[in-house]
Write a structure and sequence with these properties.
Strand 9 and strand 10 form a beta hairpin. The chain is of the alpha/beta class and 323 residues long. It is built from twelve helices and 13 strands. The structure holds zinc ion (2 copies).
């Protein structure tokens, strides 16, 4: 009897330790690959026009139920997507699965990856045309890119005998020039566009609503009430920011930034009103290696400036982070 009691206690203790071990393992897993929310935010590119080898051009993926929705396609977008697929195990980001994209505005740092997004997955076997949503002008940009690569398209269609019969069709792009409001809806997600204030007459931010999360992405913008309203307690707000430290060193850039971008003080004010559960800062004047660009700020400086006026949870995004 006594022997049985000891065995039972030992067995109970083993179960408890196994439980603790599993919890620790789960926590490690979570920090390595992001939260276990069904909807994932994958930062493909958190950089700016500056050619920083640590940060690709602006591009973000919202991944839900095995489907990916891109916002912006800066330099390196397809290769970062492949890295997210291969290194982080996110199958939706296999480049041939990239079929839906939204663009915030037409600046080259947000769109220079467009030909890459059209043609690389096409040649690799994308099964359907690309669907692209964005402001007025995205149709003309698309037509010009397809025209620029016309010789390549004709050559590939006529010589690549291993490709499927509909190869000529799958390089096409269905372009949707949008206005504010709900612009996209499928079984996974509803996407709402809202106006932002940037250097073009028409620029947009986007809100994604899925079964378990609400995510707002600003694109490039001056602080606006529309961004605050779009978030309004959202789960994740992804917003640009320029540091005061950087702006102080760039008086030539200050008037432009004051009209078309958001500084860290303004972002702190905006986030205090928008109240996201998590604020992710991207597209900022940040470098990880100071020698690359002495004027730029460190991620720590960005955090310090924002946290001086904001009490919520905030992170500085890095390429291939998953939230
Ligand atoms: Zn811009
Ligand atoms: Zn930009």
């Amino acid at each position: 009897m006594c022997y049985h009691n000891i065995l039972r206690r030992l067995f109970g203790a083993a179960i408890v330790w196994l439980g603790i071990f599993a919890t620790v393992l789960a926590a490690q897993q979570q920090s390595a690959t992001g939260p276990r929310s069904k909807t994932q935010v994958v930062l493909l590119g958190t950089g700016s026009p500056f050619p920083d080898p640590d940060r690709s051009g602006p591009a973000t993926a919202i991944v839900v139920n095995g489907s990916a929705y891109l916002v912006d396609f800066g330099a390196g977008v397809v290769r970062r997507a492949k890295a997210a697929m291969f290194d982080k195990g996110i199958a939706a980001l296999e480049p041939t699965n990239l079929t839906v994209a939204f663009v915030t505005h037409l600046h080259s740092d947000h769109t220079v990856g467009y030909p890459d997004l059209i043609f690389t997955p096409w040649v690799m076997g994308r099964k359907v045309p690309l669907e692209v949503y964005g402001p007025k002008g995205i149709k003309a940009m698309t037509d010009h890119i397809l025209a620029a690569w016309q010789a390549d398209i004709e050559e590939r269609v006529s010589t690549e005998t291993w490709q499927p019969n509909n190869y000529r069709d799958t390089c096409k792009v269905n372009v949707h020039e949008i206005s504010s409001g709900v612009i996209y809806k499928d079984a996974n997600v509803t996407v709402t566009a809202f106006p932002t204030k940037h250097a073009f007459p028409e620029t947009y931010g986007y809100r994604f609503d899925t079964a378990d999360r609400s995510i707002v992405i600003s694109g490039d913008t001056n602080p606006t009430q529309a961004t605050i309203d779009a978030c309004h307690g959202c789960d994740v707000l992804i917003h640009e920011a320029q540091t005061l430290e950087w702006l102080a060193k760039r008086p030539d850039f200050q008037p432009y930034a004051a009209k078309y971008h958001t500084n860290t003080t303004q972002l702190a004010e905006l986030a205090s009103k928008a109240k996201p559960h998590l604020l992710i800062i991207y597209h900022a004047s940040i470098v990880l290696r100071p020698a690359l660009r002495p004027q730029a700020s460190s991620p720590e400086q960005v955090l310090k400036e924002v946290l001086s006026g904001y009490a919520g949870e905030v992170v500085v995004g890095r390429d291939l982070d998953v939230y």
